[in-house]
Amino acid sequence: MEICPENKSAKTEEQLTKGVLQLYEPQLATIHTQLKELTIKQESVNDLMSSQMRKLDNIQNDATWDAMMAHIASRRARLQLLQRNMMYLHKKVMYLQKRAENIEKLSKKKYVHSSKPSTG
């Protein structure tokens, strides 16, 4: 009984196909389940993002939000003005303290000079 070459080739192809399937099928099944899980997670995250965007749109369209943001901006401007004024006062105090020290030194020198008897 002779096997014709076409039959032999088809049988070899079938065996190769089975071997490749046995080799890669478990990995493909695992990847398939992981992709399903990932797709489910992605859909839930997408739904969550959509709901958060709707909430943000609602907040941004709210008049109280606009008023609050304007209030924050004005408070920030006042805070910056107060900071500048405090820095100015700090510099002024430092200058006056130094001036007071210098005046005190000069007065001590004058007192020391005036208390010494002059020899002549």
Describe this structure in words.
The mean pLDDT is 87. The N and C termini lie far apart (152 Å). Helices cover 91% and strands 0% of the residues. It is an all-alpha fold. It has two domains: 10-61; 75-112. It has two helices and no strands.
Produce a short descriptive summary.
This protein has 120 residues and is mainly alpha-helical.
Lay out the secondary structure.
Blueprint: H1 5-60, H2 63-115
Largest sheet: none
SSE run: HH
Helix- and strand-based class? mainly alpha
Overall morphology: elongated
Give the low-confidence spans.
none
Share of helix among residues? Answer: over 70%
- Amount of beta strand: under 5%
Structural features:
120 residues; mainly alpha; 2 domains; 2 helices; elongated
